[in-house]
Amino acid sequence: MTLKNPIEISQNYYKIADLIVKINYPDTLNLENLLPSFRVFQIDNTNEKPALSILLSTDKAPATADMGILRSDESIAWGDRFCFYEREDSFLTTIVNDQGNEQWCMRSERNFSQSTIYIPSSTEGECSSVIWWMLMMVFGQAALLHDTIMIHASVINCNGQGIAFLGKSGTGKSTHSRLWLKHIPNTDLLNDDNPAIRISPDGIHIYGTPWSGKTHCYKNEKINLKAFVRLQQAPSNLFKWQSGVSSFITVLPSCTAIRWNKDLFATMNSTLEKVVSQVPVGLLQCLPDEAAAQLCYNRIFNKPE
What we know:
Helix 3 packs across helix 6. This protein starts with 8 loop residues before the first strand and ends in a 5-residue tail after the last helix. Strand 14 (196-200) and strand 15 (203-207) form a beta hairpin. 22% of the residues lie in helices and 34% in strands. It has six helices and 18 strands. The chain is globular. It is of the alpha+beta class. The protein has two domains: 9-146, no CATH class; 148-300, no CATH class. The mean pLDDT is 93.
């Protein structure tokens, strides 16, 4: 009998929002090709403790008679192919593959600091997108223990100051960012979907991440967070600053946290309270036009109108 050669395990390290992410993976996977948006975040081996450790495994996921409590069976990304279960000691995420004959499985510790992603054998066409999405999910949770929140936003860098545009999908966040890029001098796009905010001793910063939706904008950069602006479509342009509880409520729906993990959700709320106490929050009811971008810019930077 011929014994199979053991699969060699490699390690890659990434720094995202100043947090270390460690990925262990079999040499049979070409991680650079699977995760192209991670390339600019990769670092050399480090002695820093990872905020998040992930194992990518081509082994079959262990059979589990009790999956736990089904918390969700639908997602925007995966529709009804997705299930999320809560167990006493862990969380399980499953996604049926695009051929419908196997499923992905991810087991995560309660605080999401460690996860194992089991890759099914039939993964052609979606291996990269599923791993990319699962990493985004676990990073968004594990980061909460490090004064860091991922948010759903489009972020403009204006002279080194970050403005995060918030709103429901389809509200026009990306459109408003493009209006700034076109009409406001010295602006650039930092991230168009999932930036990260972190509190540090030298202030509150917003970071580019490997996750930027459909826009290929993967920048390993951090800038000061100048303001949040929630967008609402309206027949005319009107800007209002929010205060107190209204500021918190305006930003909260855009923050990434799993409500069923009460400890992490409470940690996120505490961090968000600190952030909105220092970063102004505005509400912009607007048309998708140059005047809306100019009004927003003037109010944020105290320019005459």
